[in-house]
Write a structure and sequence with these properties.
It contains 17 helices and no strands. With 398 residues, the protein is mainly α.
């Protein structure tokens, strides 16, 4: 049901009453996750990011090296946030979950940057590069030649090392045999959606639309939402890695997590597109917002996606933590620079309304996280401009 069409006052009252209990549980889950994150996950994330920074610095090709280092140093926040899902895993197995999640997110960001670059064969080149996702979830086997005829190919084994680390972390978890096949399918579709999204610049949106319309969710979502959700399904991959840490997890559980996260991923992609709207207008970048009739239509769909994301997460085992993830994913973008513009605030009002008090704690936490990120960046800038040999230099990755 579309927000504002047929939703009675009684319906809203019932949703609000249910939402109070839901929000309370999710808030507790969010607080507990943060209490676990800082002492047990964050130090591991920093170590893993330093590991990949060292490996990226050794990439022989200067263009690939710059691509890898730029992504690591400018998008580490993505990795830190993704790793909060590792708090679902027991302490004795948590390190393996962090290893897999960090490697997967770093790989996703790196491939995102590579497949954005102009290519005469964007579909072939993208599919070859995203074979790294298949290798990352496979239990054994050799690693593919990911670059093929790509003009830049000498990465010194960087992409294969990321796939190997993800594989090692995932298959060190007890439920990997039942979860990994689902994660592999989710990430294969993610790679296809990313490849087709970036191919729009050369091949147009028709090929993206045609592919999205073959997906099973097309009966419930519009084609841009199916494509947007699939393209951001690395988040579902992280959730599945966390699920693999549960010895009692089943293949059916993995399928439910994969299905539930698609709507959240669609919501986050659209919110990201909204935050980047001005920059995309200047650079001509692909914008999912362009596929909506007008701002009224877009606002209604954003509200609907938020509602459906909450409903899907509420049906999962350990629902409170998944609800906190929905709220956190939305808060990541709603707290970003640019989210307070007049247009963004107007378009995201239905999301805020649907998520309600679920958002309050998440927004407060992200305000702290973003403040810490700004302070770290200021220290890093001062360190870069300090005289050579000066004391107190902050490493690029903390």
């Amino acid at each position: 049901m579309t927000p504002g069409n047929g939703v009675t006052h009684y319906d809203r009252m019932v949703r609000q009453e249910r939402g109070r209990g839901t929000s309370a549980g999710a808030t507790v889950a969010l607080v507990r996750a943060n209490a676990r994150f800082w002492p047990t996950v964050f130090p591991d994330v920093r170590r893993e990011l330093r590991r990949w920074d060292r490996q990226a610095q050794a990439i022989p090709d200067d263009v690939l090296r710059a691509q890898a280092l730029t992504k690591l140093r400018h998008e580490r926040f993505n990795t830190e946030v993704a790793a909060t899902l590792a708090t679902l895993v027991s302490p004795v197995r948590r390190h393996h979950a962090v290893e897999a999640i960090v490697a997967l997110e770093v790989m996703y960001d790196y491939l995102d940057g590579l497949t954005e670059q102009p290519s005469p064969n964007p579909l072939d080149d993208g599919r070859r590069l995203y074979r790294a996702f298949a290798d990352a979830t496979a239990p054994t086997g050799p690693f593919a030649d990911y670059y093929g005829r790509h003009p830049r190919r000498d990465d010194g084994g960087y992409l294969a090392a990321l796939a190997a680390a993800c594989r090692h972390g995932l298959w060190s978890l007890p439920a990997a045999p039942v979860v990994a096949p689902v994660a592999g399918a989710v990430l294969a579709r993610c790679g296809e959606a990313q490849t087709r999204t970036h191919a729009v610049a050369r091949l147009g949106p028709g090929q993206l639309q045609a592919w999205a319309q073959t997906q099973p969710e097309i009966c419930a979502l519009r084609w841009p939402e199916v494509a947007a959700g699939a393209a951001a399904s690395v988040l579902a991959g992280h959730a599945l890695i966390a699920l693999a840490g549960d010895p009692a997890a089943t293949g059916a559980d993995a399928e439910r997590v994969a299905d539930a996260y698609l709507t959240t991923c669609a919501l986050t992609t659209l919110l990201d597109s909204l935050i980047d709207a001005e920059a995309d207008a200047v650079t001509g970048g692909h914008a999912y917002l362009a596929y909506y009739d007008d701002d009224v239509d877009l606002a209604e769909r954003l509200g609907l996606l938020a509602r459906e994301a909450v409903a899907a997460a509420a049906e999962l085992p350990r629902a409170a933590h998944h609800l906190a993830t929905v709220a956190g994913a939305a808060a990541f973008y709603l707290s970003a620079p640019g989210a307070d513009s007049e247009r963004a605030a107007r378009l995201t009002a239905p999301v805020v309304d649907e998520l309600g008090s679920l958002l309050d704690s998440a927004l407060a936490i992200f305000a702290v996280w973003r403040g810490a990120k700004r302070r770290h960046e200021r220290r890093a800038r001062r360190a870069r401009h300090a005289p050579k040999g000066a004391a107190g230099i902050v490493p690029a990755l903390g």
